[in-house]
Amino acid sequence: MMVQHDQRGNYQHTIDCICKSLVASLRESNLGQREYARLAVQTPAVLVRNNVSDSGHITGYETVCKVWITDISQSGIGMLLEKTIEADRLYWVDVSSLAPRTGCECSTLLPFKSLYLMRLLPETFRTGGPFVTDAVKLNRMVRGIV
């Protein structure tokens, strides 16, 4: 699987492409009319964490776990996972399973801040939070400066 990280930080473009594609699908099937709604999605994905060099640059990514994306909007994402993660932390979600729907060459790794972790079943958790699209805020979070 080829994962693309947008070196220019144009994550909002990827988010917009995915959401517009899903909204178009909803309109085609007459299921909704709101443009910025939370969109129900059922698709597998991978949650990753970035590795950072001493100089504060991303040097790579490590897989945290497989997830199941349950909803997405232009401002954030929700998902199910089978292990605990830290809340209030920067993660990246590989949305390559959604990218083919967009018809564009989007980045497939999107940064988001996990705001919560909720246990649903003994080995099932829910997390979600806003996408981090502001370059200054993202750089601070990558470097661990909150």
Q: In short, what is this structure?
A:
The protein has 146 residues and is of the alpha+beta class. It has two helices and seven strands, in the order H-E-E-E-E-E-E-E-H.
Characterise the protein shown here.
Strand 6 (116-121) and strand 7 form a beta hairpin. The protein contains two helices and seven strands. It has helices at 11-28, 135-142; strands spanning 39-52, 58-72, 76-81, 89-94, 109-114, 116-121, 124-130. The longest helix is centred in the first third of the chain and has 18 residues, at 11-28. The chain is globular and about 45 Å long. The chain has a single domain (11-142), classed as predicted glycosyltransferase like domains (Thrombin, subunit H), CATH 2.40.10.220. Strands 5-4-1-2-3-7-6 form a seven-stranded antiparallel beta sheet.
What is the CATH class designation? Answer: Mainly Beta
Computed over alpha carbons, the radius of gyration is: 15 Å
Number of helices: 2
The N- and C-terminal alpha carbons lie at a distance of 32 Å
Name the CATH superfamily assignment: predicted glycosyltransferase like domains
Give average pLDDT, whole number: 82
